[in-house]
Amino acid sequence: MSSRPKYFLCGVGALVVLLLVLAILEAPPDGVERGETSQFVGRFHPLAVHLPIALLLLVAVLELAGLVPSGRHLKPAAGFVLALAAASSLGAVFLGWMLSRSGGYEGALVTRHMWGGISLAAALLVCCVIRGSDHRLYGAALLLTVCLMAWTSHQGGKLTHGQGFLTEHMPGKLRAMLGVPAPAKRQAAAIPAETSTDLRAATVSRPAAASIAFFASRVAPIFDDKCVQCHGPEKKKGKLRLDSFDSVMRGGKHGVVVKPGDSQGSELVRRVNLPRDNEDAMPAEGKPGLTAAELNVIEFWIASGAAETLTAEKVRMAPPPAVEPVLPPLAADYRPRAAQIGALEAQLGVRLVPRSQNPRDGMILRTVSAPERCDDQVLNSLRPVADLIVDAELARTRITDAGLKTLAGFPNLRSLDLSHTAISSGGLASLARLGKLESLNLTSTDVDDEGVRPFRGKPGLRHLYLFGTKSSEGQAAPPNLAKN
After folding, report:
1. By the 8 A CB rule, do 312 and 297 touch?
2. CATH class of 3-161
3. Are the C-beta atoms of 355 and 330 separated by less than 8 Å?
4. What pLDDT, in 10s, does the model give residues 1-60?
5. What is the pTM of this model?
6. Where are the domains of the chain?
7. Fewer CB near the last or first residue (10 Å), C or N of the chain?
């Protein structure tokens, strides 16, 4: 490649690098999911990222082959392959930024991998510029670029497979030579699910001192093995961390995930019990799900109170849990209408996800990825499946009082989030006839005392959130206060 075209293309590449740097600085990964299209495009990053890696290694091979007389004819091809590597690296960085920005990722590991990628693209452009002008400088730059590629790839590997993916099974002698600490030994969490008596006996199937906390010895190793690689200090997907007791109880961007004493009502239990092909299933991204024994440990810990200080001895001595009455289904079986549900999702741009593995537990209406798509007309279009929806997440959508009249016809609705919408007290009265409503979030809306009066003492309504409203309680209440 002649000098003028080479410098022109490198200048264009430098401009793209600058734009990517500005994009990362102005719109860094923040743990928020946004935009179905951007998530779809961004998920091509794991595929695209292998192309510049392969091309860079090929450049190194061609340059080395060119050092011997029999391989000198290969050396000119290295420049062209190097240019392809630089161009493809820019595309991979762009896709990586889209994935991390819109896919709900954040954390130091994500940031390091992203800056490693942009630095690698810049280093490849530098190699393109100096190739042919100073052989020693070019050789050193190419070597450093290969090393940078290895480091950046390692960060990506840790993002995908966990922090200790390369070192977990490292031979002892090599571990000692490199100064890599031995991995923490994981304690088995084998609790079968036959009966409550078997369950309590299994928790102490191994010798355990009464002073050893059940969470630290049984629950935390499961989180460490299956969850922390996506929900830890380095990578906090959905702003949720599961690497410590306090973080588990704090929850993520959607609120708490563990409800002490209520395992079936805990979002964490719902997610880990979802079918593996469900987008909301945890662990995500094709990773193996929890075993039946691991699920039993987590569910039993939550049902026992989800305390950090609960010891194995207390679990053994605890009385058997009370037999819960058989409750009626929350909604009709959604499976016969799966095709209709899929068509509505595609047409309206909203999501209808199962509340649990039980097909009679109803569905959740989700709009968080694109709330601007949901308006009164969308709610009206959902009437054919209104009886299946038990939870409607409508925060920041464009619904109005007219949409509330439609929601009044959702007979099985139990949880309704209307925060940050344009509704008023005038339209709120139509919701008073929802006989199964248990939670109503009116945060940052224009409702007042007159509008919420019908919900005072309403049978079955356990939570009424009024922060930021014109209601007298809403003016003084903290953000997380729920009015009963």
Report:
1. no
2. mainly alpha
3. yes
4. 556 666 777 788 889 889 988 988 888 887 677 777 888 888 888 889 899 999 999 999
5. 0.48
6. 3-161, 196-317, 335-476
7. C
